Amino acid sequence: MLDLNPSERRELRARAHKLHPVVTVGQQGLTPAVLQEIDVNLKAHELIKVRVFDDDRDARETLLTRICAELGAAPVQHIGKLLVVWRPKPREQEAIKKEAAKSTPQVRRPRTPLPRSPARPPSAPGGRARRPPVPSGGRRRRPHP
Question: Which CATH superfamily is domain 6-86 in?
Answer without folding.
Answer: YhbY-like (3.30.110.60)
